[in-house]
Specification:
Blueprint (H helix, E strand, L loop, with lengths): L4 H21 L5 E16 L2 E7 L4 E8 L1 E2 L18 E10 L4 E8 L3 E3 L3 E9 L2 E9 L6 E4 L5 E14 L6 E13 L3 E6 L2 E2 L3 E2 L3 E14 L3 E19 L2 E25 L9
Antiparallel strand pairs: 1-5, 1-18, 2-3, 2-18, 3-8, 4-7, 5-6, 6-11, 7-10, 8-9, 10-13, 11-12, 12-16, 13-14, 13-15, 16-17, 17-18
Length: about 280
């Protein structure tokens, strides 16, 4: 599908959702639940980390220690000049079971990218070619060393959600400000691409471990249904059995993430009793 079609399809989706909402509001009685969907973009900072490499056929079992990694935003290079899914994007699909108490569940996905910093000297310690090694290597393409989770590191979480109401305009509820707390666990789905000593793997997606995360979000809702959301998130991801040239790698790191989302929300589920309903 051509990239220019994707904004159009998202626009059609949003208009369709607003149409559903408008039809619902013609019927009296508030619904108990609330559905929401958002799409946005993110940036990350990573802890230093170790990557353990095991290649039994090559008699290698070593670790790259104290590695520096960085993200690759993409959205700062011209957001609307490329497909929407190329930059570091994210989406949330959630349902609030009880709008008054604010408890809910959410599918939370972040397309993040982790890249070994180019031209960094990495300490290698362990067994190399069957012999003990404690040395350093320079990570760059010219030396045959690179390590990318660039398409990407891909955090998927199943979150429990709690909403706290901060402010609502009393007359018409056309503006609301809420805080959302979220926490969950789920798999990571990395795209693995690397080369060690000039031996490159076959780049691929795979289920490669798990992650846990917690997120705090400030959400401003306008005219009841459209919202803008600013999120801060921490995540710990542990990757294992990453397929490399004639072996496997494992890797773990922490992430601090900032996110900006645009979303839509509307009531769903059973209706509350209409007793005492005033029409507001």
């Amino acid at each position: 599908m051509q990239s220019w079609n994707k904004p159009l399809l998202l626009g059609i989706l949003f208009v369709s959702c607003f149409s559903i909402v408008s039809a619902q509001t013609k019927t009296k009685g508030k619904r108990k639940g609330e559905f929401y969907f958002s799409w946005g973009y993110n940036t990350e900072w990573y802890t230093r980390s170790n990557v353990h490499v095991s290649q039994p056929e090559l008699l290698n079992n070593y670790t790259f220690e104290n590695i520096r990694g960085h993200d690759h935003k993409g959205w700062d290079e011209g957001l609307f000049s490329k497909a929407l899914t190329i930059p570091q994007y994210n989406y949330r699909i959630g349902y609030i079971f009880n709008r008054e108490k604010g408890f809910g569940f959410e599918i939370n996905f972040d397309h993040t990218k982790f890249i070994f910093a180019e031209d960094q000297e990495a300490r290698l310690k362990g067994t190399l070619n069957g012999k003990f090694a404690d040395t350093s290597v320079m990570f760059n393409h010219a030396n045959g060393f690179y390590y990318y989770l660039n398409n990407g590191a891909n955090f998927l979480l199943f979150n429990f959600v709690k909403r706290w109401k901060i402010y609502t305009t009393k007359k018409n509820e056309n503006f609301k400000l809420d805080f959302f707390g979220k926490a969950g666990i789920g798999p990571v789905i990395p795209h693995v691409e690397n080369s060690f000593f000039g031996n490159a793997n076959d780049p691929h997606f795979q289920f490669g471990g798990w992650n846990v995360g917690a997120e705090g979000s400030l959400r401003a809702t306008f005219f009841k249904y459209a919202y803008l959301e600013y999120c801060n998130k921490i995540d710990y991801a542990r990757y294992s059995n990453l397929r490399i040239y004639k072996g496997e790698a494992k890797h773990a790191f922490g992430t601090y993430e900032m996110i900006l989302n645009l979303g839509i929300t509307f009531p769903m589920g059973k209706r509350e009793s209409t007793a005492g309903y005033t029409g507001h």
